Amino acid sequence: MVLFQNAVLFQSFKTSERLLRGNDPAAHTSPSSLSTVCAAGAMAGLCQSLVSAPVDLLKTLSQCGGGKGPYERGTDILRAHGVGGLYRTWGITAMRECPSFAVYFSVYHALVPRTPHAHDAQTVSQDTRCAQKKNHPN
Q1: Can you give the three-state secondary structure of the chain, one letter per residue?
Q2: pLDDT grade, residue 19 (50/70/90)?
């Protein structure tokens, strides 16, 4: 389930970032501003909370004891309250996820260009492309 949550998170981040930057092709050639990254991170957190809210609810209820696992807890909730019962904690989950991922993506966006490894990897990649062009001048 974590894999699916991460897929939702990162795909919705990129989609949100693209939407916030607009349709101008020139805007997509430069890095996003910190405010764009922050807003896209918050929107991604909101999307991801739609997946994480039911998962967190079932996990928490399973840890409370009573000998029932997540599957049994889930079927009990569905019988008693329907699908809406799985989302009864969605509001508080969204309130946690939105600011958390706004900060998460903003910090990542701010720190990655400053790390020596990110610069070295880009330089190595450029040097490799230049060497390939020299060897294959098509």
Answers
A1: CHHHHHHHHHHHHHHHHHHHHCCCHHHHCCCCCHHHHHHHHHHHHHHHHHHHHHHHHHHHHHHCCCCCCHHHHHHHHHHHHCHHHHCCCHHHHHHHHHHHHHHHHHHHHHHHHHCHHHHHHHHHHHHHHHHHHHHCCC
A2: very high
